[in-house]
Write a structure and sequence with these properties.
- The protein is an all-alpha fold and 418 residues long.
- The chain has helices at 6-25, 58-81, 83-90, 92-126, 132-141, 151-169, 173-177, 180-183, 189-210, 229-244, 257-260, 262-285, 294-320, 326-333, 335-352, 360-400; strands at 216-219, 222-225.
- It has one domain.
- It starts with 5 loop residues before the first helix and ends in an 18-residue tail after the last helix.
């Protein structure tokens, strides 16, 4: 494995852990409603707040708020990094076919199998009749299709289709991706940063005036965050452009200015978070609701925080995560599977701890640790099963063809790793 790939692998592993932490801690934040919303009552707020515990800790509010503002942007950036090289290697239609299977099948299974199991825990919190048969009748009667974290998969499919269209039908795309603005981001990372910030602000500011920061819109099983979704597109395309120039060049250059000046980027990131949270807190609490421009200041803080967080993570990990971290490497290798399975474990673990009189910190950390272990184990087991099935299929094909079976041939990739 090339040394240049370790920072990205380690970053992917850490980001997955942060996603699990976000879903593990969100039941214990102070700003949650007083109790779990009723299952059958519009606007079905339990989709956003599936289970709410009476134990709360303000530290979880700060953590979850920060993750909410940037985590999916950097996930889409990281997803885009590998797309262009994959298109060059496999070709447009072969690449698209593999992505549709790899993302589409888990999306359908997640929506129609996993999410009903996960949200059964939510139903039981407020249900008069907690049996599965009663739940299933209520579930089928819902006018919505709750997707949980599976929304990320369909949106990523859409972005991959966009990338394939650019690769196949826009001949000049490759030349654009190698422009000095992108290829020389090692010397001038701030130029790419400002493009992301300006594009994000242009789309986010008018949308957040219509929708709130937390508002989701849905068309059947296709859910998305209304105000923030354009940012996901821009960060994905930025990742695609950076990755097209290589995984140790441009913005990812170990000797580049982003890596050398990582303390500055981290400092600006903390400042951007304050720029968001102070106006937001003043508006939510009431004293700042009538102050002109305060809401705009907070919205700009969100845009800056998402971009500075992404650049800070890249700078820090390229600088300090250039070696294999065994545990994180395994988590990264199984990141897709962990993401796929974790929500069921998170909700049911929160539900299991509802009746225990324990501090919120203890409950949150317990849910997080168990969620990581169970999701990790499920991903490892699934990958091993799928790898065995592929190996048996390969042996059968070679046997039918009259050739020796490659029983010891390594598989190039597992299905639930990315």
């Amino acid at each position: 494995m090339r040394k240049s790939s370790f920072p990205l692998r380690n970053l992917r592993g850490v980001l997955i852990l942060l996603i699990l932490a976000f879903h593990s801690f969100s039941a214990y934040i102070v700003s949650q409603p007083a109790e779990t919303p009723p299952f059958d009552r519009p606007p079905y707020e339990w989709v956003a707040f599936p289970i709410i515990d009476s134990e709360r800790w303000l530290g979880f509010d700060l953590f979850c708020a920060a993750q909410f503002l940037y985590l999916m942007q950097i996930m889409f950036f990281l997803s885009g990094l590998f797309v262009w090289q994959g298109l060059l290697k496999k070709g447009a239609m072969n690449y698209l076919g593999q992505r549709l299977v790899r993302l589409g099948v888990p999306f359908l299974i997640g929506i129609y199998v996993e999410m009903p199991i996960a949200f059964y825990a939510t139903y039981r919190v407020t249900a008069v009749d907690p049996t599965w048969s009663s739940y299933w009748s209520h579930w089928l009667a819902l006018p919505i299709t709750p997707t949980g974290p599976m929304w990320f998969l369909w949106f990523l499919i859409a972005l991959n289709i966009l990338a394939v269209a650019l690769f196949r039908f826009v001949p000049g795309t490759g030349s654009v991706l190698t422009l000095p603005l992108i290829a020389r981001a090692d010397a001038h990372p701030s130029r790419l940063f400002w493009i992301l910030v300006v594009l994000s602000a242009i789309t986010y500011l008018p949308l957040v005036a219509i929708y709130t920061q937390w508002k989701w819109i849905a068309f059947g099983p296709f859910e998305v965050q209304a105000a923030v979704s354009p940012q996901y597109v821009f960060f994905f395309l930025a990742g695609l452009a950076v990755g097209a120039n290589g995984y140790d060049r441009g913005l990812l250059d170990p000797d580049g200015m982003l890596v050398r000046r990582w303390p500055l980027w981290v400092s600006v990131t903390f400042g951007s978070f304050l720029l968001w949270i102070i106006p937001t807190a003043l508006i939510v609490k009431g004293p700042g609701a009538g102050i002109p421009g305060l809401s705009l200041l907070g919205d700009l803080g969100l845009v800056f925080f998402a971009a500075t967080s992404t650049f800070s993570f890249i700078g820090v990990f390229v600088r300090y995560a250039s070696e294999r971290w065994p545990i994180i490497d395994s988590i990264s290798e199984n990141a897709y599977g962990i993401y796929f399975f974790h929500y069921v474990f998170a909700l049911w673990l929160v539900y299991a701890l509802l009746g225990l009189e324990l501090p919120a910190v203890v409950k949150g950390l317990t849910v997080f640790v168990l969620c990581v272990l169970l999701s990790w184990g499920a991903a490892l087991g699934t990958n091993a099963t799928l790898a065995s099935a592929r190996l048996l299929l390969l042996r059968r094909r070679t046997t039918l063809a009259g050739q020796p079976s490659a029983t010891n041939a390594p598989l190039s990739e597992t299905t639930l790793s990315d």
